[in-house]
Amino acid sequence: MRLSTWYPHPLLLLLLLPPPNPEALSTRVFHLQTPKLYLPESFSTCECDPSKSPHSTMSMLSSRLFTITDQSKLASSSSTFLFPLFPSHSRSFSRSSRSSILYGRTHVAKPIRASASQLPSAASSVTVENSESESDPSGTLFVIRARNRIGLLQVITGVFKVLGLHVEKATVEFEGDFFVKRFFVTDSHGAKIADPDSLDRIKKALTDAIEDGGTVSMGPASPTTRGVMVRRPGSGLGMSLGSDSAKAERMFRLMDGFLKNDSISLQQDILRHVEYTVARSRFNFDDFEAYQALAHSVRDRLIERSHDTQLYFKRKDPKRVYFLSFEYLMGRSLSNSVINLGIRDQYADALSQLGFEFEVLAEQEGDAALGNGGLARLSACQMDSMATLDYPAWGYGLRYEYGLFRQVILDGFQHEQPDFWLNFGNPWETERVHVTYPVKFYGVVEEENLNGEKCNVWIPGEVVEAVAYDNPIPGYGTRNTITLRLWAGKPSDQHDMEAYNTGDYINAVVCRQKAENISSVLYPDDRSFQGKELRLKQQYFFVSASIQDIIRRFREAHSNFDEFPEKVALQLNDTHPSLAIAEVMRVLVDKEHLGWNKAWDIACKIFSFTIHAVIAEGLEKIPVDLLGSLLPRHLQIIYEINFKFVEELKKRIGLDYNRLSRMSIIEEGAVKSIRMANLAIVCSHSVNGVSKVHSELLKAKLFKDFYELWPEKFQCKTNGVTQRRWIVVSNPSLCALISKWLGTEAWIRDVDLLTGLRAYAADPDLQQEWMMVKKVNKMRLAEYIEAMSGVKVSLDAMFDVQTKRIHEYKRQLLNILGIIHRYDCIKNMEKSQRSKVVPRVCIIGGKAAPGYEIAKKIIKLCHAVAEKINNDTDVGDLLKLVFIPDYNVSVAELVIPGADLSQHISTAGHEASGTGSMKFLMNGCLLLATEDGSTVEIVEEIGADNLFLFGAKIHEVPKLREEGSPKMPLQCARVIRMVRDGYFGFKDYFESLCDTVDGGKDFYLLGSDFESYLEAQAAADKAFADPNKWTQMSILSTAGSGRFSSDRTIRDYAEKTWGIEPCRFPSDG
C-alpha cells in the first residue's frame, strides 16, 4: 500500500505507544542508513541497501504494523513509535514525490499485530495556548490528550494538513493509557494563529476528528480555516461496510492504493493491456495496438479518479450543474489526459524503454466525431474548465456513430463520406450497460382518474432504449475527474424478443436499425420530412434519457422535490435541448404528480439558456404537426405553457396583438410551429449571449420584447477556450517558453498571469526565442502541407490562415477574391518590383453543409485558384494557396501554432462570438478581423494597434443593405471578371457564385468591404516586414489572451447563473 505524504518529523510520522520490552528492540532491527529513503512496505531482517531503487524496496508489500524507534533514544528505550501500515481504506498517491519519507536514522523493530476495532476515548480533550516562551515564540501550541489507538495520528495530522497549517515540532508524554501530544503549529505564512475564530474552528475540527474518528464538517471558512474532511480507517468514501465487514475490509485492503506511475509499473500496465485487452502478443504488436494499450492504461487511471470524484460528490451532496449540449468536439484524448494527470513525461520515458515514441503513438488516435464547428469545441473546452475548477458537473450528449461526415476532396469538389470513427472502438469510453432508460415516441394521450383527480397518461407507440457511455474528463492540477455521458440508441428488449419469438426477423432487424439510427448521424439532412422527424427524435431521445438520469441521481439522496432547485442546475447549450423543459414538466406532473404551478416554479428555477444564434432565421422551429405526431403529450404541455404565458403577458402589456404574436411560443404562420428559443426564454431564469456584441444584439433586436419584459434575465457570458488544450497540448514549445519567462507554470490554471509577458514584449532575448518557437511550428505545418497536398511552401513566407465552417457570412469568398487580387498584382509587376513583395502562404480549411451549394462552390473556386497559382513559375514562393481537407481539432492543433496571421472576416453582426480567434490569439497569431463577435473585446484587451481591423461596423450594415451596394470597386470588379471569364476554369459553374457579389445582391457586403480589406492586408504586409515589431505584437497578443479562457467563462456561469461551489476532492485522498 502506498502511503500519503507525511510531515518530515518522526514524531509526526509515528504514533506513540507505551514502551515495549527493551529486549524486544534487539531481536529484529531494520537499519535505514540513508537520511532520505522511501519507507519499505515489507519487513526484513537484512540491512537495507541504500543503493537499491525505490522500486525494489517498494516491491516488498505487507499490511503489518511496525514499532519504530528514534535511534538517538534507542539506548534508553524511552519512546517507541508505531508506524501504521494498516490499510486506511483511502487511496493514496503513487507518485514518488508523494511517498512516505523518513528523515534521519531510525530503527524498525519487530512487527506488532493490531486490532482495527480500537475506539476513540470519551475522555479526549484539545486545548490551545499561544505561549511566548523562548522555546517556540512564534508557534501556537495545541495540546491533545486521548487514548492511544491505531490511525489516530493520521487523523490529527490530516486535520492540520487539510487546514494548511504547519507543524514545527511535537512532544509526547504518557498518562496511564492516555498520551498527551503537544503540537507547535504555525499558519501558512509561518506565523502564530491569533484569530480566536480560527482557533475555535481548528480546535473543533481536532475534537470532532478524535472523538468521532471520521468526517468533520466546519462552518463558513475564516481566513485560516476551511471545510475539513478527514477520513479514518474503515470510512472509505461514504461507502458502508455493511453487515459483512470482513469482506468489505478485504476488498479495501486489496484496492486501497492508486495505480503506480513509475516507469516499470507503466510498462507492465501497457504490456498487460497489449496481451489481455488488445489480445495481441507482447512480442508482436504494432504502433496502433501499442496506442490502444497505452490509452487503456491511461483510462485505468482516469477511472480511479472518476470513481473517487463521484463518490465524493455523492457524499458531500453539493448542488450540481448538468450541461446539455447536442455536440462536443473533444479532439484526441491521449495527450490532453496525460498532461492533465501530470504523467506525460513518465509515460514518454516508459514507452521509450519499450522502443516507442509517445508522439508517434499519439498520432494513431482519431478524433471523436461528436460535433461540428465552434459550438462543439466550445462545449469541450467548458467541460475541461469545469473539471479543472472542481465544479460538481456532468455533461450530456449523444454518441454519434458516424458524426457529421468525413470531407473528401476529389478534383476540387467536396464529397461527403461517413466518418467511421468507432470502427476500432473508443478506448476512452465505458459502456454502462446497467444505465439504460426507455424513451417513448408516438402513441396517444389518455385521461385517467387518480385519487379523484384527472391525470394524463401517455401510451407510446414506440419505445427505444438509451444506453449510457461514459467518458472521463480530467481536470488539471486536481484529482477531480468529471463525466461526459453520451447516449446511444438500442431497440427495446421486449419488442426485439417479441419479433424474434414470432419469427418476424425482418421486422426485428428494422426495429433495431430504426433505434440505432437515432444516434447514428449528427444533424441529418432535414430537407425531407423523414430528416426532420429523425432530428426531432434525436433531440427528444437526448433530453429524455438525460432528465431521467438526473432525476434518478437526485432521488438517491432526496425524496422531496422542493429541494430540486437547491441541488440541480440545468444548462441548455443553444436551442437543441430545449425540449428538456417540456420533459421536466411531464415527469413532475405526470410521474411525480406535482401540481402544475409547483412543477412550473421548479422548472423556472433550474433552467438557464445560452443562445448562439444572431439572426431570426437561425432560430429553431418545430412544426406543430410533427411534434404532435411524435410527442403528443409534449405538445399538450407546450400549449399549456404558452396559454398561461400569454394570459400573464396580457396583464403586463395589454392587448398589443403584434407583440403578443411575436412573443408567443406558437408561431401562427403558413406552417404552424413551436419557437424553441421562445420556450427556453420563458422558462429559464437566465438567458445569455456569448459576447458583449452578441448580448446587445439579443437585447436590442432578436429578443427585444423579452428583454423589455424581463431585463434581469439577460446576461453576457463571453465564450472562452481552454489554454490547456490550445497552448499546453498543441504548442508545448510556446508553453515552455512562457513558463520560463514568467518563472512559473501557474498560468496554466491562472491564465491571467499571462499579462506578465507584457513587461518583456520588447525584450530582444524573448523576441528571438519567440521567433524560434514560431519557426519550429511553421516547419511542422509546412511538412504537413507538403504531405497532404504536395505543395512545398517557404518558411519565410507569412502563413495566412482562415479555417472555419464554409458559409457565405464567414466570407471565405472575400478571402479568395483578395488572393486573386494579390496574384493579379504580382503577375503585372516588373520582376525588379517583386523582391519587395511579402511572400504569403494562404491556408483555407472547413466543411460545407451537404445541401449548401454556394458553400460547395466556394470550395471548388479555392481549388481552381490554387491550381492556377501554385503552378505559376512567375509567382513561385511569393504566393501559395492551400486547402486543408477534413479540418478537425487535431489538424487545428497543428495549424494554429504555425499561423502568423488569422482571418476572422465575417460580415459585422453575424458572428455570435468566434472562439477560433481566441485560439489563434493565445498562440501569438495576429488577427485580421471585422469588429464582430468577440473581436470587440479582444481590441479592448490588446489594443487596436496589435491587430488589423477593417470593414463596416455593426450599426452600419443595415443602412448599407437598405441603400443597396454602391458601385463595385474597380479591384473587386476586376477579380470577379477574371472568374466570370473562366480564367480559373469552370466558367459556367462559378456564374451563380459571382452573382452573389455583383449581381445586385451582395447581402454579405463583400464589394462594400473590399477596399478596406485590401488596406488591412497591406498593413499586415508592412508589419510582417519588420520582424521585431511583428514579434512584439505577437507577444502582446498572447499576453492579452487570458480574458478569453473558458476558465473565466465557467466561473462566471457558476457564480452568477448556476449558483454552485467548487467541490474539490481532497488532495491527500
UniProtKB/TrEMBL annotation:
Its cofactor is pyridoxal 5'-phosphate. Residues 1-24 form the signal peptide. SUPFAM superfamilies: ACT-like, UDP-Glycosyltransferase/glycogen phosphorylase. The keyword Glycosyltransferase applies. GO terms for biological process: glycogen catabolic process. It comes from the Eukaryota. Gene3D superfamilies: Glycogen Phosphorylase B (3.40.50.2000). Belongs to the glycogen phosphorylase family. This is Alpha-1,4 glucan phosphorylase.
